[in-house]
Amino acid sequence: MAKASLPVAWAAALLIGAAACSPGAADDGRLPVVAAFYPLQFVAEQVGGEHTTVTSLTAPGVDAHDVELRPSQVVEVSQAELVLYLSGFQPAVDAAVAEHAGEAGFDVGTVPGLLNDAAPAPDSDHHDHDHDHGHDHGHQSMGPDPHVWLDPLRFADLADAVADRLATLDPTHAADYRAGAARLRDELTALDQEFTEGLTDCQRREIVVSHAAFGYLAHRYDLRQVAVTGLSPEVEPTPGQLAEVITQAKAHGATTIFFERLASPAVADVIAAEVGAESAVLDPIEGLAPDSDDDYFALMRANLAALRSALECS
After folding, report:
1. Rounded to an integer, what distance in angstroms lies between the CA atom of residue 246 and that of residue 248?
2. What is the pLDDT of residue 6?
3. Closest to 281 (Cα-Cα) out of 209, 203, 198
4. What is the pLDDT of residue 238?
5. How far apart are CA 176 and CA 49, in angstroms?
């Protein structure tokens, strides 16, 4: 479980020392932006462009949910002009933002209309009854499905909100930030069209996944996710849950059981063996794999290819 915070004296000493020796944002004129995990890093880089320096608190290969912050990262949070995070997704980040970010903290979950109506019902049918509406990390309730970036059009709305916040912080470059968001929206709209066309004519609409991370994607493209567990990838399924998913997978003729790139495929492999299916990656894009050259668009297109194969789309 992630630590709630650094010892007060230790953190205070680090922050005082850093403030004394750090060059800050004024040296090169770029806004220091801290992003809690990869999708927020990606959108900040795309919108902020040359006017920002973006740092992620979640390193490639690290499970975004359980990230623990180093003292130097807490200092980065304290010095940033903007800290993009999603409340409840990463308890250690929530604590650092609450204690050290001040007005720089921007909970993207507060963007109007961003997190709603896609999870878990009616687009998913998961069986983690203890966590039907929550992300269970340190007993913090997650609320609705946070994986909004898996819907390209909602992700474009998030980009607009980031552009607005950057424009407020740096009015001199406001037009550039809004132009960056507009370019990203164009690319995301094209990606949405690829998904819409690619998933229109398929033999099946059900996707069997290791955890219910795909509510927004399913909602946008008229799919139905059958998930082994709820929103938390760490919750171990009970034998009854496994049996129920196996029954549904057989009933729907599933040929592929999906697992996450940064998680163990063990549960998916068990279900696949029982069903007579194969297991494959469907990436929730919470983080990057180590040494990966892929970006958000490459990972989303890989997801589209995996879905088309699994659902036998023409």
Report:
1. 5
2. 45
3. 209
4. 76
5. 8
Q: What is the mean pLDDT of the chain?
A: 83
pTM: predicted TM-score of the whole model, two decimal places: 0.82
Architecture category of domain 201-287+295-311 in CATH: 3-Layer(aba) Sandwich (3.40)
Q: Which CATH class name applies to 13-112+146-191?
A: alpha beta
Mean pLDDT of 88-117: 94
Q: Name the band, by pLDDT with cuts 50, 70 and 90, for residue 139.
A: very low
pLDDT digits (tens, 9 = 90+) for 171-194: 999 999 999 999 999 999 999 999
- The domain ranges of the chain are 13-112+146-191, 201-287+295-311
User: Look-up: residue for tokens 């219910």?
Assistant: 212
Same fold, 13-112+146-191 and 201-287+295-311: yes
With cut-offs at 50, 70 and 90, classify the pLDDT of residue 243. Answer: confident
